[in-house]
Amino acid sequence: MLTQYAHAKRIISTAKEIFFPARCFICKRYGDLLCADCQTLFDISRVHRPDRNHKYLADIFAACGYENKYVQKMIRGLKYEPFRKELACPLAELIAGHFKLAEQNFNFREFVIVPVPLAEKRLRWRGFNQADIIARELGRLSDAPVAENCLARVLETKNQADLGQAERLTNIKGAFACANNAPFKNKPVLIVDDVITTGATINECARVLSRAGAAKVIGVAIARTNS
Ligand SMILES: [Zn+2]
Fold first, then answer.
1. Which of 78, 186, 207, 224 could form a disulfide with 56 if both were Cys (CB 3.0 to 4.6 A apart)?
2. CA distances (Å), 172 to each of 21, 183, 207, in order?
3. Which pLDDT tens digit goes with each residue over 202-226?
4. How many domains does one find in the chain?
């Protein structure tokens, strides 16, 4: 049954490629989902500025600034209707591109990639967790293991976007729990989210991961806001 389903899915995706070949999300030219010309518009950061301002995070890496309108557009394309899940691939490529430019010697294979879990209500509405699929693509690009379902969202919290910096910290506290620490015990972890604003969410994830035995935790995102 499952193989039949997988088979049907493959036929559909091949048919899609024939009838609807990939077009660049930005300029609509046929070819890649994000063409090389348009990738330059994202202004991938060539420099990494270490961020040690979060108690449980050794550092934070972000590929772009969220004020870039192309980054916003593509992340929205992934997260809002009509969901373009395939955009997770070019978005993860932005992260990989940033590491290539700014941190050539970074060895992804030493790390375990863990996505930030999504609130239940959002997950039901969207049908997928964007951090999961970005993490999966980043794992594929960087050859690092991805451990989904290690963290669980155990508390329904207010939307962080509606809160100020101090409120965000208390709002998110206790929102996550470790469901399975076997994949990352005594290993360094990359905690992955789409956008980092204050860092309160990934810092809280990092707290839980550290308590559960992660050797260290580094935050990774496609984009970061200025605030
Ligand atoms: Zn283009």
1. 207
2. 42, 24, 11
3. 999 999 999 999 999 999 999 999 8
4. 1
